[in-house]
Amino acid sequence: MPHFLNTQDWSRADLDALLALAAHYKRQPLGDALKGRAIALVFFNPSMRTRTSFEVGAFQLGGHAVVLQPGKDAWPIEFDLGTVMDGEAEEHIAEVARVLARYVDLIGVRAFPKFIDWSQDREDRVLKAFAKYSTVPVINMETITHPCQELAHVLALQEHFGTTDLRGKKFVLTWTYHPKPLNTAVANSALTIATRMGMDVTLLCPTSEYILDERYMGWAAQNVAESGGSLQVSHDIESAYAGADVVYAKSWGALPFFGNWEAEKPLRERFRHFIVDEAKMALTNDGVFSHCLPLRRNVKATDGVMDSPRCIAIAEAENRLHVQKAVMTALIRGL
Amino acid sequence: MPHFLNTQDWSRADLDALLALAAHYKRQPLGDALKGRAIALVFFNPSMRTRTSFEVGAFQLGGHAVVLQPGKDAWPIEFDLGTVMDGEAEEHIAEVARVLARYVDLIGVRAFPKFIDWSQDREDRVLKAFAKYSTVPVINMETITHPCQELAHVLALQEHFGTTDLRGKKFVLTWTYHPKPLNTAVANSALTIATRMGMDVTLLCPTSEYILDERYMGWAAQNVAESGGSLQVSHDIESAYAGADVVYAKSWGALPFFGNWEAEKPLRERFRHFIVDEAKMALTNDGVFSHCLPLRRNVKATDGVMDSPRCIAIAEAENRLHVQKAVMTALIRGL
Amino acid sequence: MPHFLNTQDWSRADLDALLALAAHYKRQPLGDALKGRAIALVFFNPSMRTRTSFEVGAFQLGGHAVVLQPGKDAWPIEFDLGTVMDGEAEEHIAEVARVLARYVDLIGVRAFPKFIDWSQDREDRVLKAFAKYSTVPVINMETITHPCQELAHVLALQEHFGTTDLRGKKFVLTWTYHPKPLNTAVANSALTIATRMGMDVTLLCPTSEYILDERYMGWAAQNVAESGGSLQVSHDIESAYAGADVVYAKSWGALPFFGNWEAEKPLRERFRHFIVDEAKMALTNDGVFSHCLPLRRNVKATDGVMDSPRCIAIAEAENRLHVQKAVMTALIRGL
C-alpha cells in the first residue's frame, strides 16, 4: 500500500503528477475525490497551518478530517513489540493504528523529534510505526522531514518562474539564527526536493556543525546524480547569495550538539548576521525569497524582505492546501 | 471589504436585514449559502456556545468551520511592525492572518482583554490586526464587545414583543455581583444595541465607578440622538426597575480598578444585593429577563427568575445560531 | 423522549433492531439518516476511539459532530438546584443542556467517575442531569457503564459465531491486573449485555472485593431470569476458562477500596497472574478473546493472545462505528 512518508519514496513522474493535480485544484477547488471519506490527523505536536489546510482540503473534496491531538508532549504509546507494558504507556501502536484504520481512509501524522538523542529521533519511529500497522495510507504531516511543504514550495516556484522545469535555477538553502534549536525537518526536505528538481543547490550554513544528517546529504547527492543540477556546501554568505534565483531560509539546531543545546548556544549566537535582509537579496539574480512559516520577523528575515513582492512565503503556505488535496486524492484513488 | 466587528459599523438598514435573515433561518435552518466555504474560528479564550453555534451554523448552510484554539492564555503572536522578534512571539499577525485567509472564506476571532491595562485592552488590537491583514471578512466572536450576542438578544426581544420595532420599551441594563471582575464586552454591547434600537435605556450600576468606557457611552449617546429613545445612568434599583419592559443583567469589573482588582473587591462585595430576584422583577411592567450566559444561579439571578416563563435567556442563546448564520451569509454573498 | 443511557432501559427487540441496523451500516456505510443534523460530543474525559467513531459515523450519515472537551478534569458545572453559585461553578447544567439542545439534535456525554466516593459516582449524575434537562436525546459515551461498547462487542460475537443467537455460549468476564484502579464501566456493561443475550456467564475475579456493584449484579440476575442462561462468580482461573467460548478481559478497581486506592494496591499486586495468556486460552473451547481497548500488552494479555486470529478486539473496536450510527439513527428517526 502506498504511503506519503517522503518524496524520495515516490517516482519523479508521480511527484510531477501530484504537482499538476495540485495546480488543477488551485484553479478548481471543489471536487468529490474524498466523498464519504475520512482522514484522521494525528498531531503529537501543535499545528495551525497544517491542520487548517488538511481539514479544509478534505472538506472541499467531500471528505471529513478528524483532528486528534494526543497532547503537546509524548502520548503514552508503546512502539516496541514484546514489551511488558507496566510503565506509562496505556496502548500499543499496533492497536492505535489498526483501530484508526478501521474508522478512516487516510491517517496523517505529525511527530516532531524529542530533541534529546538524534540517533533515536532520526529513526522516525512514530511515523514508521503508523505506516507499518495501518491498513490505510499514511501521510507525513512533518516529522524529521516535511514532504507536503516540499511540494508546496516547488509549486510556488513553478508558479513564479512560469514553468514546471526548475533545472538551472540557483537555489540557496540558508540557515538563519533563531533563539531556539529547531527541527531540521524543513531543511532536510528543502535539500531533498531542490536537488530532486535538478536545481543548482547551495547549502549555506555558518559552520560544518550545521551540515544536515548524512541521510539527507546522501539523498541530495543521489538526486544530483540522477536529475542533474549540483550540490555544494558553503559557509560564505556573499558567494552563496551571488546570482541566486531562490533563497529559502530555515533555522535548525546543529546535530553534533543534539540534546546538549546549552553547549550549542554560544556558537549559534555568533551567527545572527545570517538574517535574510535587503542587502543580501540585492546580491541575487532578482531572486525570490521563501520560508515555511512561522517566521520571526527581523530575526530570520527583515520586514523589508518579508513585505517585498519577491517574497512568496504566503503563496507557498497557500499551496499546502492544494498539494495536500492532491496527495489525499492520489492515495485514495491513484494518480 | 466588510467585516463584522461592531454593530456600530453597520447601517441600521443592514442590521435590520441581518435580523430578518436570522428570523428566516430560524424557520428554515438548512441552506447552501456557505456551500464549499470554510470559516476559521480562532479562539484565544475558551467557548462552548459560540463555538457550537458557529460550527453547527456553518454546517447547516453547507460550509465547514475549523476551530483553532491557540491556548487559554496568550498565543505568542507579534502585533507591532518593525519589532525584532527575539522574544516569545514565533509569528507575526501579518503572516497568521494572511495565510488563514488563503485557506478559508471567513475568520471569526475571540480575544478577551488581558485585564491588566484597560488603555491597552480598549484598543481591541487582536481583532483589529486580523481585520487589517486578513483578505477575507473577519467576525467578532467577543473581544471588548460582543455584536453577535447583541443581535441574538434583539431577535429574542422582537420575538417576545411580536414586533421588530422596539422603540418605547424601557430597557434596563443592570450590573450584578459576581465574585470575579468580568469583561465589559456584553455590557458595552447591550448599551450599544439597546440605544441603537431606540429604546429608553437605563444603565443601572452600583456607583459611578461601574459606568462603562466613554467610547460606548458615546456610541449610546449618538444612537439616542439618531434613533430616538433615551439614556440614563442610575444607581437606584427601585426606580430603575420600575416599569421596565426588559431587564438585561451582566456583571463587570469597574474600569477605574482595571488590573488592580484586589482594590475593587471591597467595593464589589457591598453590592451583592444587585441580584435579579422576583421582588425586583415585580417592579417591572411584566418585563422579560435575559442574560448572555453563563450565569451563576442565585448570585446574578435567582432560580425563580431563571426558571420563570419571563426568562428568555435560552431563546437568546438559541438565536446566536440564527444570527451568526445571517452574518456569515451576509459577509459571503451580501445582504 | 428516548435516550441511550443503558441497554437495560431498552427492550430486547429494540436492541436486536439496533444490532441489525449496525450490521447493515457495516455493509453499506454511507447514508442520509443524519442529513443536516448535528450531535454534540461532550467529553469530560479524553477519548480517541469514541470521538473518532462518533465523528466519522455522523459524517457518513450526512450529519456533523461538534466535539466539546470541557477539560481533563472537572468542568465547573453546578448540578444541584437551589445552590448559591458563588464557588467555582460558572454555569448550571440546566442552562448547559438546554442551550446545547437548541443547537444540536443529539448529545453524547462521556463522564468518568471521580474515583473518590463510589456512593456518589454510582449516581451517574452528569449523564442523568443531561438527560433530565436536554430536550434532545442523550447518548452515554461511557460513564459508569459503556453501552455502545456492549453493542459493539455483541456484534463482533455475532459475526464470529455466524449467528445472532448467542444463547448457550460460555462467556467469561475476567478481571486482569493493571497498575492503576480503573473504571468498572466496561465490566458492568459486559456483565449486563452478556446475561441479556442469554449466555452462560462467569465473572472471574481474584477475590470477593472485585465483585461488581449490586446494581449491575442485580441487572445480570434479572437478565438471567428473563433470557435464560446463567451467572456465576468464580475466583478459580482454571475452571472458569474451561470450555469458554468467549473470554472478555477488563481490569477494574475493587469497590470496597474506592477512593482509598493505596490500600487496595497490595491486594491487586498479588494477582498479576490473571493476565490472559496462551496457556489459559488453551483451556477454552477454541474461544475468542476480546477487550475494549486500550490494552497494556503483556500486562492484561500477552502478545500471543493479542496477535492471535482468535482475538476480535480490533473487530469489536471497528463495530463501535457501526453500532453508534445505528443508535444515532434510532434516536433521530426511530427504529
Helices and strands in order:
Three copies of one chain form a homotrimer.
Chain A: H1 12-27, E1 38-43, H2 49-60, E2 64-68, E3 77-78, E4 91-92, H3 93-103, E5 106-110, H4 118-121, H5 125-133, E6 138-140, H6 147-161, E7 170-175, H7 185-196, E8 200-204, H8 214-227, E9 230-234, H9 237-241, E10 246-250, H10 261-269, H11 278-281, E11 288-290, H12 303-306, H13 313-333
Parallel strand pairs in A: 1-2, 1-5, 3-4, 5-6, 7-8, 7-10, 8-9, 10-11
Helix pairs in contact in A: 1-6, 1-13, 2-13, 3-5, 6-7, 6-13, 7-8
Task: Please sum up the structure shown.
The structure is a homotrimer of 335-residue chains. The first copy, chain A, has helices spanning 12-27, 49-60, 93-103, 118-121, 125-133, 147-161, 185-196, 214-227, 237-241, 261-269, 278-281, 303-306, 313-333; strands at residues 38-43, 64-68, 77-78, 91-92, 106-110, 138-140, 170-175, 200-204, 230-234, 246-250, 288-290.
Characterization of this structure:
- By secondary structure, the first copy, chain A, is of the alpha/beta class.
- Chain A has two domains: 153 residues, Aspartate/ornithine carbamoyltransferase (Rossmann fold), CATH 3.40.50.1370; 169 residues, 3-Layer(aba) Sandwich (Rossmann fold).
- Helices cover 41% and strands 14% of the residues of chain A.
- The first copy, chain A, has 13 helices and eleven strands.
- In chain A, the strands form three sheets. A five-stranded parallel sheet of chain A has the order 9-8-7-10-11. In chain A, strands 2-1-5-6 form a four-stranded parallel sheet, sandwiched between helices.
- In chain A, helix 1 crosses helix 6, helix 6 packs across helix 7 and helix 6 packs across helix 13.
- The longest helix of chain A is centred in the C-terminal third of the chain and has 21 residues.
- Chain A is globular and about 55 Å long.
- The mean pLDDT of chain A is 96.
- Chains in contact: A-B, A-C, B-C.
- At the A-B interface, helix 2 and helix 13 of A face strand 2, strand 4 and helix 3 of B.
- Chains A, B, C: Homotrimer.
- Chains A, B, C: Catalyzes the transfer of the carbamoyl group from carbamoyl phosphate to the delta-amino group of N(2)-acetyl-L-ornithine to produce N(2)-acetyl-L-citrulline. This is a step in an alternative arginine biosynthesis pathway.
- Chains A, B, C: GO terms for molecular function: amino acid binding; N-acetylornithine carbamoyltransferase activity; ornithine carbamoyltransferase activity.
